[in-house]
Structure formats: C-alpha cells, structure tokens
Structure prediction request, 243 residues.
Amino acid sequence: MLNVVVVDDEVPAVEELAFLLGRDARVGTILRASSGAQALHALETADVDAIFLDIHMPALSGLDIARALARRERPPAVVFVTADEDHALDAFELAALDYLLKPVRPERLTESVRRISESLAGAETASTGDGDVVTVVQGATTRMIRREDIQYVQAQGDYARLHTAETSYLVRIPLAELEAQWADAGFLRIHRSYLVARHQIRQVRLSAGRASIRIGTVELPVSRRHLPTVRSTLETGRVRPTA
Prediction:
C-alpha cells in the first residue's frame, strides 16, 4: 500500500485528488497539505512513498519542494499536478515521475499510481542485446517491446524507465549502459536524465538560453553540456531548431 501526500493551496483541489486516490486499492494512507510548510512537515513526520504537488503555491512552490526533496538520499516519487503546462520542462529537469494537468483524468492518475507502485515493488529486468526487440520480464510475465516504439528513456537512479506512447516500463539497467548499447540505433543523450530516439523528435526549441526537445506531447530539457552534440547530430539529420 502506498503512503502519499497531496499538496495544493486550494483545499477543494486537495480533497478532490485525495478522493480519486482513495478509490485506488494500491493507495493506503493519504496525507493532506495546503502549503509547502505543511507538506515538508508531513514528509518529516511520516513515511511517504510519493507526493502529488501543485506548482503555484504561496511561499514555497511545488518546484521549491521538489528541489529540496532531490537533495535527499531516498526522496519520495514526485508527481506534479497543475493547470500550468508551461512548467513541464522544469518538472522534467527535476526528474519528476509524472506531470498531470488539471482537471486530472482518473485514467491518468491510475497510470501515475502504477508507475509509483512499480518503482517500489521492484523493477522489471530487461534483455536488450543488439536486436530490435527489448524483452522485459517481471515475475512470470514476459513482454516484447519493439525498440522503435520507445520514445525516450528516463534515468531513475540505477534504473531506467522506457517510455512508449502508451505506457512505460521501469527496468534494472542504468541509463549510461543503454546509451552505449543503443547509440548505433539512433538514441541520443540530451541530458543526464534523458536518452531520446532521434526518429521520435518532433520539435527542437531554443528560447531564452534554454533548449528543449518535443517528443509526442512531452517536452524534455536539453542540458548545456549535451547541447553542442545534440545540435551537431540533429543538423546532420536535418532537424532544424526553431526559435
């Protein structure tokens, strides 16, 4: 059972999300907080598996709280819940597990809970080899995933999360290992936390000194360290940055 904290400065929003989470059998204790201070107090006094954070709050914002949690040795999973699409890039910079837009759809919330449960229950093992199919095994279940369907890979400590258009899989493979194995298959490192499939890139943006890549509906950050390689690679592939 997952212990979670729901944080929003609007109490009705807290209660609505807590209600939806309470309908999921995988969720146990649901703590509520209407400020950043209350959220940090809950995290200090209770064993919390995940935190559902609004971004815009007085004093401590959701991003402030996520930055503080990122410094912990074992931080809870962070899911942002907001009406603001503009901070998705900041959220992914902080390696958030998910980014939900209000009003929250029950099926999207279910997917977030699934990701959290996977992270806690133990990752799947994967055999990548040099072929075009990734074999993912969890217990007695084996899934065959076409590598060309993987849009991007997100680092989660010593694990990696493989994202497709429909779902994601947490596997016991470090991102650096996948980077080495899949370089010749068109996968490009854009950030310490992200590896992307070049053929899945839909847009490259350069704005106010920041760079990002759009894959499907997700916008991922490009770090300054990786930007020269990314630009060179995409220029070769005739993918032009847009201002």
Summary: The chain has a mean pLDDT of 86. The first helix runs from residue 11 to 22. DSSP finds seven helices and 16 strands in the chain. The helical segments are 11-22, 36-45, 62-70, 88-93, 106-121, 175-182, 227-236.
